[in-house]
Amino acid sequence: MEVSKLKKRTKQDGMTLVEVLCAMLILSFVMVTVVYALVYRIHSFKKTREKTTAIVIAQSAIEEINKYPSTAIPSAQKYYVAKNGENLIRSESKPKDFTELYEVNATNTTNSSSFGMLYDINVTVKYAYMRGSGGFLGNIVLNTQRGR
After folding, report:
1. Theoretical Cys-Cys bridge with 127: which of 28, 31, 54, 59, CB 3.0 to 4.6 Å?
2. What is the separation of C-alpha 97 from the centre of its chain, rounded to a whole number of angstroms?
3. What are 112-134's pLDDT values in tens digits?
């Protein structure tokens, strides 16, 4: 009777459990990092879009005030601009149905200077409305002066 000798393993046929667990751990760290970066990028894009829209609304409010003759410039205006889809809708009271909401406050004061009478026009647009708290997260302030 011959006794067979056991052969030593010289070739690896697969991966060990420890190697598989390490690979899964590394892969999960990479996936979490990529998902976090995507979510941050989407949030950052939304904030930038809202801020840009607020700037455009503020510039539009200044242009609207500049259309008035110097004797008829309103001293203060407050209104809301709501966004539904791609449409911007102006309203004197806070609307109930919107995807984005902006609050516009425009004031006008008279200022005398060496150049004569000047009107200081200040426009503040609040943006990034939080539905739960009822407050805004950011605001844009534009100031300009206009002569008579």
Report:
1. 54
2. 19
3. 776 677 888 899 999 888 877 77
